[in-house]
UniProtKB/TrEMBL annotation:
Belongs to the PMEI family. Residues 44-189 form the Pectinesterase inhibitor domain. Keywords: Disulfide bond, Signal. This is Pectinesterase inhibitor domain protein. It comes from the Eukaryota. One of its GO terms (molecular function) is pectinesterase inhibitor activity. CDD domains: PMEI. InterPro entries: Invertase/methylesterase_inhib, PCW_Enzyme_Inhibitor, Pectinesterase_inhib_dom, PMEI_plant. It comes from Medicago truncatula (Barrel medic).
Length: 196
C-alpha cells in the first residue's frame, strides 16, 4: 500500500506566526459575527404610536396607518411596525405608479409625468430603494435602511415638485401625497431603529 504524500510542514517561524494570526482572526470574525446575530435576534424595541406620530406632518394619518396593522400597533416592536409600514408604502407606490403609467399614454400631457415616471421606476428609483430598504430591514442593517428611505422621500419630493409645475391630475397629486405621508412614517420608524 502506498503512502499518501504528507502536507508540507512549515518550519519558518514567520509562516507559523502568519498562520496563527490568520487562524486567530478567523476565529474572532466568526465569534463577532455570531454575537452580532444573537444581539440582532434579541433586539426588540417598542415605541408608542403617539411618540412616532407626533413627528409626522399629519399625525392623524400616521396613527391610522400604524393602528391599521392587523392585531394593532400597541406594544409591537419597531421591526414589525417597519415591516408592515414598508408594505403599506409599497402598496401606495403601486397605486400611484399605475396612474402615472396610464397618464403617460396621453401624448399631449406625457411630458408632465416624465419626472414622476423616472422617480418611480428609473435606475435609481422609489421601487429600487424600497426593495433595498426591505432587504436592509431583514438584514437588520438599520442605518442603510434609513438611507434608502431618505432616497425614497427625495424621489417623492421630486415628483411632487414636477406635478406643481403643470396642470396635472389632482388624483395623482393625492396619490403621491398619500405615498409621501406613508413614506414619512417609515422614515420616522427607521430613525428610531437606527438610534437602537
Amino acid at each position: 500500500m502506498s503512502k499518501l504524500p504528507r502536507a508540507p510542514y512549515f518550519h519558518s517561524p514567520r509562516v507559523r506566526l502568519e498562520l496563527a494570526m490568520a487562524s486567530k482572526l478567523f476565529c474572532e470574525l466568526a465569534i463577532s459575527s455570531r454575537c452580532a446575530r444573537e444581539r440582532a435576534t434579541q433586539f426588540s424595541k417598542v415605541v408608542d404610536v403617539d411618540v412616532i406620530c407626533k413627528e409626522a406632518s399629519n399625525p392623524s394619518y400616521c396613527s391610522n396607518l400604524l393602528n391599521s396593522k392587523p392585531g394593532g400597533a400597541k406594544n409591537v416592536d419597531l421591526v414589525d411596525l417597519a415591516n408592515y409600514t414598508i408594505g403599506v408604502v409599497k402598496d401606495n407606490f403601486y397605486i400611484a405608479y399605475k396612474l402615472v403609467i396610464n397618464l403617460q399614454r396621453n401624448v399631449t400631457v406625457r411630458n408632465y409625468y416624465t419626472r414622476c415616471a423616472i422617480d418611480f421606476d428609473g435606475d435609481d428609483s422609489i421601487r429600487g430603494r424600497l426593495l433595498g430598504a426591505k432587504i436592509d430591514l431583514e438584514l437588520k442593517n438599520y442605518p442603510d435602511m434609513a438611507s434608502q428611505i431618505g432616497f425614497v422621500m427625495q424621489h417623492i419630493d421630486d415628483c411632487i415638485d414636477s406635478l406643481h409645475k403643470n396642470d396635472t391630475s389632482p388624483i395623482l397629486a393625492k396619490d403621491v401625497d398619500i405615498l409621501r405621508q406613508s413614506g414619512e412614517v417609515i422614515q420616522i420608524i427607521s430613525k428610531y431603529l437606527t438610534l437602537g
